[in-house]
Design goal:
- This protein is mainly beta and 119 residues long.
- The protein has one domain.
- 11% of the residues lie in helices and 40% in strands.
- The chain is built from 2 helices and 8 strands; from the N terminus they run βββββαβββα.
- A 5-stranded antiparallel β-sheet has the order 1-2-3-4-5, covered by helices on one side. The protein has a 3-stranded antiparallel β-sheet with strand order 6-7-8, covered by helices on one side.
- The longest helix has 9 residues.
- The chain is elongated and about 50 Å long.
């Protein structure tokens, strides 16, 4: 697994504030993990993260849950639920303590990795 961390200024991309209390510009961190599944993590200055797994965006993940979320994805614990009627698919990422993140998959097709995780 390789990563390419980057420190990017926010430049007003939907952030809730334009400057920190000390007057400086807020910053966020971005990491892209190579390999399969394709995963990116964008940490915001508001102590939450946007994690994207194979194109599925999982917003508002608390910063403290990011390591467990990534471990679950890369250890093969994450899965996709599928329902025929009404048609719906969700990425489900279980975390320790009987907690899960469930995110709707809006894409018409699934990537090979997501397709291999359908239950």
């Amino acid at each position: 697994m390789t990563s390419a961390p980057t420190d990017l200024p926010a430049h007003g991309r939907g952030h809730r504030r334009t400057t920190d209390p000390d007057g400086s510009l807020p910053h966020e961190a971005f990491a892209e993990f190579g390999g399969v599944p394709r995963v990116t993590v964008r940490l915001s200055p508001d102590d939450d993260a946007l994690i994207t797994v194979e194109g599925v965006e999982c917003p508002d993940i608390p910063r403290d849950d990011v390591p467990a979320f990534l471990r679950s994805v890369h250890d093969g614990l994450a899965f996709v639920t599928a329902r025929r009627f009404p048609h719906a698919r969700h990425l489900v990422v279980p975390l320790p303590g009987d907690r899960t993140y469930k995110e709707y998959i809006p894409m018409p097709g699934l990537s090979p990795w997501l397709g291999s995780r359908v239950r």
